Amino acid sequence: MTLRDFLTLLELGRELWTFPEFTVNTQSLIKSVELCRKTVQSDADSRIALEVSDTATALTWMMALDGVAGKVFLVPESLRASDDYIELTKQFNASFTITDTAAIKVEGYSETGKGKINDANIDTQWVLATSGTTGTPKLIEHSTKSLIKTCKFDTQRGKDFRWGLVYDPFRFAGLQVVLQALASGSHLVFVNKLATVSEQIQFMCSKAVNALSATPTYWRKLLMTGEMKGYSLKQITLGGEPADKTVLNALRTAFPGARIAHIYASTEAGVGFSVTDGQAGFPQTFLQHGVGGNCLAVGAQGTLLIKPENHVPTSGGSVLVDSQGYIDTGDLIELCADRVYFLGRDSGAINVGGNKVIPEEVEAVIREIEGVVEVVVKPKRSGVMGQLVTAEVQITKLVTDTKVFRKSIISHCREKLDKFKVPALIRFVEEIDYNPTGKISRL
After folding, report:
1. Over the Cα atoms of the chain, what is R_g?
2. CA–CA separation, 209 vs 211, rounded Å?
3. Once rounded to an integer, what is the mean pLDDT over residues 211-221?
4. CA torsion 421→427→430→435, rounded to 10°?
5. CA dist list (Å): 2 to 6, 8, 70, 418
6. What is the DSSP letter of 308?
7. In this structure, how many other beta carbons lie within 10 angstroms of the beta carbon of residue 146?
8. Which residues on adjacent β-strands are paired with residue 85?
9. Distance CA 333, CA 262 (A)
10. Residue 38: pLDDT above 80?
11. Given Cys at both, which of 141, 263, 267, 434 links 130, Cβ 3.0 to 4.6 Å?
12. What is the DSSP string of 419-432?
């Protein structure tokens, strides 16, 4: 099944995508997809870099190329402005690139828009870039089958949902929202290019969005605005970062009628599993019996291992799985009673005199303090200890005495954390930066 086939399941004229400037329905999308298809020939050896900035056009091209092209690198707009862009495009080694303005000009392809189209029987591989939150991004390959593994093809139920998209659609999390909405025929409202959270909220509310997937960082920002107070949501999904008890409880209070799920997924492993019991972490039974067709285990370094069902992830042609088929996610976990909790990325750990400090653990403790809006914990070089723990804290306007508040943060951390985990430096900032994937920026 190709992505174009999704459209055949929907009635013509159904509105699918809404952008700030226009709306796209099934009939116009089908026509656009076929126009794009007529410009390329089916070629299993082709390596196409898709670098189109307009979201509707980019996703149209994606559906047109499925089953026709061999490998397609979905280049996020944010990546093209990063220092990693040149290296990653060099690694991919595209046969040609589709851009906003350039026509397809490559040997074996038509420049006139009259290329021969063969039957769509190529198992197209989609190449996605990891977020690179705590390291250099990698290129990971997925098949269409692995990308739509968890999609629900219930077009009758799908009519009831209007999803908001705050993610970049060419990042793994954003692509999952796009594909699920497409598979179920749900209306999708694109707000990912609106500049501020406030603007995004206003547009989503004006379009009656009732389902939203975002990182815990984004949800905290949304809740702090207070602009969705009294608004009703049917579905809330969290992903990309550990969902702690604080944010889960806050969402339950703000949207009592919503179904809340936090999803564990990564570009490397794909969608692992979802948790809907309202608690942080996941049940230990997942480790014993697996979940969603995937097997889970704990690695030697205390990280979560996933054995994906029917999907062998690769990076640059190299298989990422070990001899037993498991991929190391790099996410540190902790077993407590009958629960498994995410601590943070192993690659992001701070080394304080030989002791490992997980930034997310310290951040979760600081967020417990009333008056804290957001916090990011980072390392600072030290000639004596190697690294020190520092914290940038965004506070509410109700906090007027920062000297006293700084002492209260330190006191709270000393109660809850080992001495070496307590921030040696606390700096108050106007706002915490987050990256294009919606996560806290740790760079």
Report:
1. 23
2. 6
3. 94
4. -50
5. 7, 11, 13, 52
6. -
7. 19
8. none
9. 16
10. yes
11. 267
12. GGGS-SEEEE-S--
| Domains along the chain with CATH numbers | 3-294+305-323 (3.40.50.12780), 349-428 (3.30.300.30)
Residue 441: DSSP 8-state: P
Three-class SS state of 80? helix
Q: Which of 381, 130, 151, 348 is nearest to 242 (CA)?
A: 348
Please give the Cα distance from 317 to 319 (Å, whole number): 7
Separation between Cα atoms, residue 418 and residue 250, nearest integer Å: 27
DSSP 1: -
C-alpha–C-alpha distance, residues 36 and 61, integer Å: 6
Query: What is the Cα 222 distance to its own chain's centre?
Result: 17
Helix axes 55-65, 26-37, angle to 10 degrees: 60
Helix, strand or coil, per DSSP, at residue 215:
coil
98-153 per-position pLDDT tens digit = 988 754 444 444 443 334 445 558 999 999 998 766 567 889 999 998 899 888 88
Contact 313, 130 (CB under 8 A): no
Q: Which amino acid type is present at position 328?
A: D
Please state, rounded to an integer, the average pLDDT across all residues of the chain. 89
User: Would you give the DSSP letter of residue 82?
Assistant: S
CB 193 within 8 A of CB 55: yes
Rounded to whole angstroms, the Cα distance separating 206 from 20 reads: 11
What global pTM score does this model have? Answer: 0.88
Question: What DSSP state is assigned to residue 404?
Answer: H
Size (the chain), residues: 443
- Please report which helix (H) or strand (E) contains residue 67, including its range: none
8 Å CB contact between 48 and 98: yes
Tens digit of each residue's pLDDT (9 = 90 or more) over 236-285: 999 988 898 889 999 999 999 999 999 998 888 888 899 999 999 999 99
Does residue 317 register a pLDDT over 70? no
327 forms beta bridges with 306
Which pLDDT score, from 0 to 100, does residue 5 have? Answer: 87
pLDDT of 75 higher than 90: yes
**Residue 381: Cβ within 10 Å count:** 8
Six-digit token string for 13: 């004229």
The tokens of 402 are what?
């920062």
- End-to-end Cα separation, the chain, in angstroms: 40
